[in-house]
Amino acid sequence: MAKICEGHLIGTGKVFGIVVSRFNELIGRKLLEGSIDCLIRHGVRNDDIFVFWTPGAYEIPITAMRLARSGKYHAVICLGAIIRGETPHYEYVASESAKGVAEVGLSTGVPTIYGIIVTETLEHAIDRAGARDGNKGVEAALAAIELANLFESMGKQ
Ligand code: INI
Q: Is residue 15 classed as helix, strand or coil in its secondary structure?
């Protein structure tokens, strides 16, 4: 019989750090609201949620790295919005923030969740921050709870 390890969606007793960028703040706030609401509804205490604002998505990984290295958090959730502008700048920000968030998780072993939306237009970003296409902040919070529990159930494996 296969031994199956999976993370449940109960957040009781877990501590989460959320890093959110102020650039495109309207969207960031909606993602943050979605994440916090989801964590609370899954049993996480308000006092166990710590929010850190960065200027932009580019600064999210270095901030998440500090949180992950601190050993205080069961998972770190990264939230932000990168929307195509007039210049290619946005492409660098998008690729560096994605690579950086992955690097934080891989190098620290702390679940580090990518909840940064990358879109062509503001309208698409709004759709993914609580309008037509759900809320990416909620998805990120669910992934954080699941991985925190999965890693706990894996123990020292
Ligand atoms: N930061 C974002 O979070 N989203 C964007 O869409 C964006 N664009 O398009 O430029 C953006 N740029 C700022 C960047 O994240 C840094 O804060 C800035 O370059 C200073 O390092």
A: coil
Among residues 40, 93, 95, 50, the alpha carbon closest in space to that of 75 is found at 50
Residue range 37-80, pLDDT digits in tens: 999 999 999 999 999 999 999 999 999 999 999 999 999 999 99
pLDDT tens digits for range 5-22: 999 999 999 999 999 999
Pick the residue whose CA is nearest to atom 16 on ligand 1.
56
Structure tokens at 117: 């939306």
Which residue's CA lies nearest to atom 5 of ligand 1?
82
Integer Cα distance of 36 and 40 in angstroms: 6
Q: How far apart are CA 1 and CA 25, in angstroms?
A: 49
